[in-house]
Amino acid sequence: MDRENKDTVKDKLSYAVYNDRTFAESYSNKIEYNSHNALYERPAVRSLLGDIAGKKILDAGCGPGVLSSELIDNGAILTSADYSNEMIRLTKERTDNKTRVLELNLNKPMELFEDEEFDIIVSSLTIHYLNNLTLFFSECNRVLKKDGIMVFSTHHPFMDFSFHSDGNYFETELVKDEWPSYNISMEFYRRPLSELFNIARQAEFTVEEILEPLPSEKCKEKFPDAFDVLSKKPWFIIFKLRKLTEE
Description:
The protein has eleven helices and nine strands. It is α/β, with parallel strands linked by helices. The chain has a single domain (about 5-155, about 195-245), classed as Vaccinia Virus protein VP39 (Rossmann fold, 3-Layer(aba) Sandwich).
């Protein structure tokens, strides 16, 4: 593989999986009602967003549009972006074209957006696919209004390292997970917790809140085995950042 193709792979990590129609539709259906997304990660993300009515929100890495749809239902003005044509198609269908949906590679500058265009940026389980996380955070700061917030979720470093303990926790490493329920392999970046803090600070954000969520009571009712696991091991971690403003 030549240098250009290698760079393309890094810039669109796991793109072939997310752009496969069979996988995309199965994934879209499962995450709407499952334990880890619907009853664990998404409620935690929404809890950090506050009152979103009338707010201009960028859903960066919108996937099949489940979160975008929920935010629209709560009065937000949405722009949804993803790198996969299949995810874009599903987002348009799910939201009934009530959001502006864009194809966007988050490893590149977000040239489609003006400075200080959004009140809020939300990025659900996306940043671990990004090679150029420094650029992404910097661009998010640029397109946020003064005092705007960014809420993002990602794999918890503790869990990533417990599953891939043959590497070096303190380095950013490209790893591969098997997803047996879909019969596919997914590549992503494992980063130490300190790097997430450092990149956020370098991009002139302050970390306002960190959430290691617990599963909802509804998860206990519907998925007792998953509830037991998620009550003891932190699967995801969620950050709320605020754009620093000059005194």
